[in-house]
Each structure stands twice: as structure tokens, then as C-alpha cells.
Amino acid sequence: MQSLQYALVAYVRSPIGIFVEQLRREIHPEHAHLAAHVTVLPPRPLRGTEADALAEVQRMAEAHPAFEIGMGEVETFAPSTPTIFIRVARAAYRMRELHDALNTGVLQYDEPWPYMPHMTIAKLNCLPDAESLVDTARARWRDYKGSKEVVIDNLAFVRGSGHTWFDIAEFSLQAAAKMPR
């Protein structure tokens, strides 16, 4: 059994999020229950209490303005992991800044891989599965006609392990008069 971990995500509830959830149902239905999101802090143990972590996220969310990112191409983390994802292509630095600002204190964790802003389509069971499905994901993404822009204006603090996660709290980022690019 995997140990309990925490993560911080920005849910994507726009048409692009719906697209990713439908694509996930098609290529990896076992994980169809997972909501589309951009990970801000990958899963980690806490260095303190859950209450302390929530307070840190609240402070940061109140001080950090909402922003927009642009999604790029479908890629895979193979051979490191059998994960298919859409890379953040525009304003990825904003996601990195948010990640770095939050990866401190009770939330600090030495992550096994460098942080790369992305929206996961599917984390498959093995590399051959990822290799066989990445072309399908790329074809569906090429056919997607909606906006490839995503507004990052909320953060959800989640608890879980493996592919079972529960929302603990949701935070709104500071509203901006005009969405910065």
C-alpha cells in the first residue's frame, strides 16, 4: 500500500479540460474518474501538519495573481514514466514560479524529477502502452479546435495515493484586473 501524500493542482474546467477527460476515457478508461488539471506541486509527504500546509497555500494564493497559460504539444515522459501529457508551451515560467514559491516550508519536497508544467492525459501501466497510445493522443489533439489557453485561477489541495485523490480545500488566486500574459 502506498503512503498518504499531498499534491496541489489547478483544475481545468474549461473545454480543454473536458477534451482531456474524454481523451483519457478513450485511451485509459481505468483512470476516467480523474479530473483534468495542471499539477503545481506533484505528490509529496508533508513536513508538518495538514493545517500548516493549508495555511501556507492560503497565504500564497492570496498574494499570487491569476494568469493564463497556453498548451503545446502532446508528449510523453518515456522512458522515465509511461505518462502521456500536453506540455505547457506559453507562460510555463509562471507555473514554475508558482511551483517554486509553494515548494517551501511544510510543502517542501526534493522531487525525483525536475518540475515540468503539463496536463496529464494518462499515466499508463507500462512503457509499451504509452508508446502505443501516444500517436492516438497526438491525432486527437491535432483535431481539437477549441482554445488552447488555460486560466490558472484556482488551486486545489488534494490528499491521496496512487490514483485515488480527495479534495481537501480549494483556493482562488488573486483576481487580476486584466489577465496578464
Can you give me a brief rundown of this structure?
With 181 residues, the chain is α+β, with helices and mostly antiparallel strands. The protein contains four helices and eight strands, in the order βαβαββαβαβββ.
Write up this protein:
By secondary structure, the protein is an alpha+beta fold. 30% of the residues lie in helices and 33% in strands. It contains four helices and eight strands, in the order βαβαββαβαβββ. It has helices at 15-27, 50-63, 92-102, 127-143, and strands at 5-11, 37-44, 67-76, 83-90, 118-123, 149-152, 154-161, 164-172. It has a four-stranded antiparallel sheet with strand order 2-1-7-8. A hairpin with a 6-residue loop joins strand 3 (67-76) and strand 4. The longest helix is centred in the C-terminal third of the chain and has 17 residues, at 127-143. It is globular and about 40 Å long.
